[in-house]
Amino acid sequence: MSSNNTELGDRDGDLSLKRMGALAGALAHEIKNPLSTMNISLQLLMEDLETKPQIASSQVLPRIRLVCDEIRHLERILGSFLEIARAPILDLKDRDPNGLIQETLAFLAPECALKKVDIRNHCDGAIGAVEFDPDLFRQALLNLVRNALQAMEQGGTLTVITRSLDAAWEVEVIDTGKGIAPNVQERVFDPFFTTRKGGTGIGLAVTRSVIERHGGSIKLQSAQGLGTRFTLHLPRKVAQRAKP
Ligand SMILES: Nc1ncnc2c1ncn2[C@@H]1O[C@H](COP(=O)(O)OP(=O)(O)OP(=O)(O)O)[C@@H](O)[C@H]1O
Ligand SMILES: [Mg+2]
Question: What is the CA 93 to chain-centroid distance, rounded?
Fold first, then answer.
């Protein structure tokens, strides 16, 4: 009896969390619209003021520009928040992930060549068909690879390794970039944590959420000046409780 109550309690808790997520998503959406109207109105106001010589040479335009920049920043944050709040349900397929990984790397090859980054790919052919959501997994992988490329501004090597384990499979994404300081490593998965100018700090939060929703885990090892390794550990079959 008591275990049933706990189960019911969990389910209720889950539901209210879902409801909160939906509410927060709706709120973010509602805030985005007036922000965009404010941005457009300010742009028009700037255009009007630019024609008035006295105002054009004063501090008025730079101040309006600053407000526009802040509005754009808020719009980006809300956009990223919506990406997490509207996390789609898993669309699980039985597929060999090696093919998808190779396709994703081939898609990024021109960008890597431009950045003088060599790609190495070691696929374990023993993985075979495993259960995962290909679109979400591609997104999770892209976020890791993009971060790796951004960390190798002077070029380097991007290595992607897959490994078959008994009831699991693993993917490692390794770069020879600038690495992550130990005190920063604790925070990189936090939503909106970023050290990059123009970054929103959402990539790793989304990647971790995707992997954990598959019942998997993500691990980070990094040494400053040497590089960074992210290891994704995923079950071959997504457990019932992790399924939507
Ligand atoms: N491979 C890496 N090498 C060095 N630092 C990294 C690496 N991956 C992540 N980081 C650090 O973790 C922070 C958070 O990464 P995350 O992908 O979540 O956000 P972002 O790249 O800053 O912005 P976004 O991905 O939303 O555009 C980065 O700003 C960077 O400091
Ligand atoms: Mg990123």
Answer: 21
